Amino acid sequence: MSYSIQTALVPAPQSYETVDLQIRQDKIAAIGAHLPPADTVADTIIDTVIDGRDKLLLPGFVNAHTHSSELWQRGLIPPLPLELWLAELYDFAPLDPEQIYLSALGTAVETLLSGGTTVVDHLVLIPGREAETIAAAVRAYREVGIRAYVAPLVQDQPFGTGLPTLGTAQASHSPASASPEQVMSTEAVLDLLRDAVRQFHDPVAGINLVVAPTGIQLCSDALFEGCAALSDQHGLCRHAHLLETKAQKILAQEKYGGSAVAHLKRLGYLNQRSSLAHCVWLDDYDIEILAETGATVVHNPLSNLRLGSGIAPLLKYRQAGVNIAFGCDGSASNDSQDLLEAIKIGSILHNTTDFEYRHWITPREAVEMAALGGATGLNAADQIGSLTVGKQADLVLYDLRSLSLLPRTDPIGLLVLGRPTQAVHSVWVNGRQVVAQGELCTIDVNQLRQELFERSAWQSPRQSAMRQSMEFRYRELMGLAI
Ligand SMILES: [Zn+2]
């Protein structure tokens, strides 16, 4: 298919300009004023002409960290810190691959309708049905047509070892002391990932497998090293949570006798293909390591606020030259997948951390972090992330006549600082139009709504056994009254 988006507004240095943009097959074929309504390269008539008047055209953003199946628990978990929130989450996690499929559909749709064309799904696996979980998410992303980085969330240490012991004998970080709780062995995890890569890794079609140990709190050195080797072998991106909470920083000190970031560097896990979610509790030395290795920070401001994890030192990352992307994080810690909301909060939040307002993030910088920063974090800046001829056509057209984007002032300022609703008019991923007139072209969203409604029920407060068993230890650790 070929498209010509005509007379759309695009950002230019200091201002905006009006251009035509042509898409041929999967790529941006031409950008310029008053392009002829023909595909000059293939010498054919353009299939579809899109009226871009009163619309803003931007590269698609990357939702650089989420967990799709959390959709089933959004709005439900009470205000709790990460460690106790996780216990609630896992006690009631969905166990049916069909649920995984539906929540991946929902995550993709909400990402597309808030400006995202790529999603990184740090996919929580159903115990004993891991391969089916991956297959269900891949099926959903293929059907919706979003560019997907499917990152099976893996660990090889039991949940109970994720908290520091503070010198007590309660837990050890060695896998040999694992409780009866089911944990896959390191080799079994790596076998699962190898199989998934063989079956599903298809970058040309927009489906990418990612190695993604959950984080230092539940993973052995051998798992990080095995994942790094697999990443090198197949050119896969690497992902992980990193120092999301203060408890994790204390744990790193216990487990490694020092910095988690330095340890990951020693293990060879950090390079330009690595993206690390949260990065709230890093110090200046850690930041230098990220800058030097080329790893990307994925900023998830809403979940960091929701779980009380803290404010990531984003302005320091920017000044050190660390690449930054934005993520929504899972829908049970946000509790939405509105990427524009994450970009807004993730930008203005940092005005409170530094009086030097010249360091504050401008709306244009935020948009570039969300698009090109996201692409860079996936080692794909040469393929996506900007309006550049020859790149993949991952594009979003915003309707500047949407009430939430009026009156006419600065389009990107309105988009980032405002509260855009129903502003996405059209979306292309890999040159395929997946949203038109604000509606999905690829799947029936009404049917999805019906399925989500019927497979859920209004809930009353729940009792999480795991949370109760952890609460005393957590309060002691954090110095809270028992
Ligand atoms: Zn996460």
Outline of this structure?
With 482 residues, the protein is of the alpha/beta class.
Tags for this model:
single chain; 482 residues; alpha/beta; Urease, subunit C, domain 1; TIM Barrel; 2 domains; 8-stranded parallel sheet; 15 helices; 19 strands; binds zinc ion; Amidohydrolase; Metal_Hydrolase; Metal-dep_hydrolase_composite; hydrolase
Q: Could you explain the architecture of this structure?
A:
This protein is an alpha/beta fold and 482 residues long. The chain has two domains: 2-59 and 386-450, Urease, subunit C, domain 1 (Roll); 61-377, Metal-dependent hydrolases (TIM Barrel). The protein is built from 15 helices and 19 strands. It has an eight-stranded parallel β-sheet. The longest helix is centred in the N-terminal third of the chain and has 16 residues, at 97-112. The radius of gyration is 22 Å and the shape is globular. It starts with a strand and ends in a 5-residue tail after the last helix. The model is unreliable at 171-180 (pLDDT under 50).
Structural class: alpha/beta
Report how far the terminal alpha carbons are from each other: 64 Å
CATH architecture of the largest domain: Alpha-Beta Barrel
The helix fraction, in percent, is: 25-40%
| Ligand roster | zinc ion
Uncertain residue segments: 171-180
CATH fold topology of the largest domain: TIM Barrel
CATH class call of the largest domain: Alpha Beta
Shape call: globular
SS strand fraction: 15-25%
Overall pLDDT metric: 95
Find the count of extended strands (DSSP E, 2+ residues). Answer: 19
Number of domains: 2
Largest beta sheet: strand ordering: 8-9-10-11-12-13-14-15
Can you summarize the main beta sheet?
Answer: 8 strands, parallel
Enumerate how many helices there are, as a single number. 15
Q: Let me know the CATH homologous superfamily of the largest domain.
A: Metal-dependent hydrolases
| Rg, Å, rounded | 22 Å
GO molecular function: hydrolase activity, acting on carbon-nitrogen (but not peptide) bonds
Protein name: Amidohydrolase
Keywords: Hydrolase
Pfam family, one: Amidohydro_1
